[in-house]
């Protein structure tokens, strides 16, 4: 590459941006007609600038769409939250006016919380929507069962909650363990061992609740032993992984 090419290539960025003088532009144009190497450098320079422009335009469009979706989600979430407040206020007024106390209002409130967990959580959570929605649904469902048990003066909450947790674990736990927050928490631990251990513990707990209600103390002791075995299996798996 001769000195003229070096000078021309130093001026090519200005030429590509069309900010050089008319004299320099004419000189560069004449050189490009005779030098294919410098012409190739100019083409690469222009293609690189086009790629940068396209990338910046793409980023700006994505950012605009993200802000637009976020604003829309916030607006819809606010509207839905307001709609949820209407039946809550109505039930509060009716409950106080008829019974002069709050009893079934809490049942309505807990039931609406279950609905909200399935509607508002997916709308407001940006990542891992299924995981957080399922977690919120499980918690609010347990709260609803607890409120119903308290209102009816029944002692069936622990029995029902143990059955619900075991059923959810049996079906959904393998999928829950694939969620990003859970993967980061458990690390490289064996998922099948975790599933087996948790299912065993929850099953033993459910059977233990059943035997307590049936007042079969021999079965209760057996279920406690089974629950302990599941907990020990889970502890052993975690300990062995940490030692590795």
Automatic annotation (TrEMBL):
Q: Which domain of life is it from?
A: Bacteria
> What is the recorded name of this protein?
Zf-HC2 domain-containing protein
């Amino acid at each position: 590459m001769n000195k003229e090419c070096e000078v021309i290539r130093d001026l090519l960025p200005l030429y590509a941006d069309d900010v050089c003088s008319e004299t320099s532009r004419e000189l560069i144009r004449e050189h490009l007609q005779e030098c294919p190497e410098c012409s190739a450098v100019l083409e690469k320079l222009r293609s690189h600038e086009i790629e940068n422009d396209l990338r910046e335009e793409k980023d700006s469009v994505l950012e605009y769409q993200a802000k637009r979706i976020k604003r829309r989600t916030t607006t819809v979430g606010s509207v839905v939250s307001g709609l949820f407040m209407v039946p809550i206020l109505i039930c509060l007024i009716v409950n106080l006016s008829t019974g002069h106390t709050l009893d079934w209002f809490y049942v309505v409130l807990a039931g609406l919380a279950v609905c909200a967990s399935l509607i508002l959580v997916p709308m407001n959570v940006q990542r891992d929507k299924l995981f957080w929605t399922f977690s919120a649904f499980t918690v609010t469902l347990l709260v609803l069962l607890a409120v119903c048990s308290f209102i009816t003066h029944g002692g069936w909450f622990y029995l029902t909650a143990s059955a619900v947790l075991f059923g959810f674990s049996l079906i959904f736990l393998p999928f829950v363990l694939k969620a990003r927050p859970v993967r980061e928490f458990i690390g490289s631990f064996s998922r099948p061992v975790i599933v087996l251990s948790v299912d065993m513990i929850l099953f033993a707990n459910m059977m233990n609740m059943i035997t307590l209600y049936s007042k079969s103390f021999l079965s209760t002791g057996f279920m406690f032993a089974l629950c302990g075995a599941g907990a020990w299996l889970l502890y052993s798996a975690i300990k062995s992984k940490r030692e590795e």
